[in-house]
Amino acid sequence: MRVAILSGGLNAERDVSLRSGRRVSQALRASMSDAELIEVDLDAEFLDSLNSDSYDVVVPLIHGVIGEDATLRSMLELKGIPFIGSGAASAARAFDKGIAAGLVPPGSAPPFVAFPQSFFREMGAPRILTSVISGIGLPLVVKPISGGSALGVRLCTGADQVAPALVDAFGYGDRVMLQQAVFGTELAVTVIDLDGIATALPPVEIVPVGGIYDFHARYTAGATEFFTPARLDPDTLNRVCSYAVSVHEVLGLRAISRVDVIVDSQGEIWFLEVNVAPGMTETSLVPQAIEAAGLQVGQVFSDLIYQAVR
Ligand SMILES: Nc1ncnc2c1ncn2[C@@H]1O[C@H](COP(=O)(O)OP(=O)(O)O)[C@@H](O)[C@H]1O
Ligand SMILES: [Mg+2]
């Protein structure tokens, strides 16, 4: 079996993706000694080589645009090449945080508005900001509607911080979300189709040392403390796990996803986003959840590869 471990890509998360690719291919070496593992970078040469006899299965580990939206996945579907993970249509739903927020269990996404840059330009930013801030309230979070790795994400506690935050967020994409900020315990819940059944792994609790789970906090060893399982009572953790499975199912996701939530002091679960190609680096959340579940990254991915081929 020829397995293409596909990483890289053209966006701001390229380096993160390359690290994810190395980590997964290393893990697979131990559990798939019979397979030919080919590490490939997403480039023109790869696209030229894509036909049904070039690879038996693709493991897409490109984060963000192209990898996590419908682009790459629809090309693979059209060429009839099996791959691990969500299909094009469901990935597109998950990739747009506004669309995903509209599909998750009612009332679980914090209130938000989303606009393209042209709307601000044409309508005049001050007018829009005044009504958005009074509607959503402060503090609010500004983020690219389809971002990743917390790039372009800012918490605004004062009205004067919103316009500069928008400028930053528009640097990562044409549409931006302004969302009510929620506070509490941040959790990442990995959902994996184990033997075809969507199963939540132990939620990982995220406590950034500097208070904010930004790019630095994500990829610098020691910049974030992780607790697995999370330090919440068993009942809350069970609710969070079933919630994550329901998000995976309602969006029609497949094989693997990671649902990010915040649980507030009342025990309420708030949806932030769901990732269809979650980070697999040394400091990433999914590998921690896999280990906490008593599983191994190589074993989990090889099972998913056989599932995809079947
Ligand atoms: N509505 C919100 N309230 C509070 N914090 C938020 C909110 N939305 C995002 N965050 C914080 O910003 C981080 C990045 O946001 P997220 O939507 O997960 O984007 P990314 O795709 O970049 O990971 C989250 O991990 C969380 O710490
Ligand atoms: Mg996130």
Question: Could you walk me through the main structural features you see in this protein, from its secondary elements to its overall organization?
Answer:
This protein has 310 residues and is α+β, with helices and mostly antiparallel strands. It folds into 3 domains: 2-85, Rossmann fold; 94-107 and 183-296, D-amino Acid Aminotransferase, Chain A, domain 1 (2-Layer Sandwich), CATH 3.30.470; 112-180, ATP-grasp fold, A domain (Dna Ligase, domain 1, 2-Layer Sandwich). It is built from 12 helices and 13 strands. β8 and β9 form a beta hairpin. It is globular and about 60 Å long. The model has no long low-confidence stretch (mean pLDDT 95). The structure holds adenosine-5'-diphosphate and magnesium ion. Magnesium ion is lined by residues 260, 272-273.
What is the compact description of this entry?
With 310 residues, the protein is of the alpha+beta class.
